[in-house]
Design goal:
With about 120 residues, this protein is mainly alpha-helical. About 50% of the residues lie in helices and about 5% in strands. It has six helices and two strands. Strands 1-2 form a two-stranded parallel ribbon. The protein is globular and about 40 Å long.
């Protein structure tokens, strides 16, 4: 998981990083990594399942619109197809909840100094 956090921080550095209070999120290695990056840490309290509803909704969409519909021939193919789905979801798919804009349009509009990552 630390490798994933490092990779995410290379793409963009948020002001606040939110997680639940699971042991992997409260470990010294994890919190030190975020502190060194200058990111404020926010942790949900108990019984706050709705705090991450947007993320949960994304994973549900990925599973039901991509993963469950395809039989991948290899892990490499699965990674490629899932990466393509995420690229489409973030850069081409318009979201009603975002005023029919893409997540990338909303995200990069908020900070003009950020640049979209290259396709995976």
């Amino acid at each position: 998981m630390l490798t994933a956090v490092q990779s995410a921080l290379r793409q963009a550095k948020p002001e606040i990083w939110n997680s639940d209070q699971g042991s992997h999120f409260t470990s010294e290695q994890y919190t030190d990594l975020l502190k060194q990056a200058g990111v404020r840490i926010s942790m949900d309290g108990k019984n706050r399942a709705l705090d991450n509803i947007i993320t949960e909704r994304f994973w549900r969409t990925l599973k039901y619109e991509e993963v469950y519909l395809h039989e991948y021939n290899s892990p490499k193919e699965a990674r490629q197809r899932i990466s393509q789905f995420i690229q489409h979801y973030n850069y081409r798919r318009r979201h009603q909840s975002l005023g029919y804009r893409t997540p990338a349009e909303v995200y990069f509009q908020e900070d003009a100094t950020l640049h979209p990552p290259t396709a995976i």
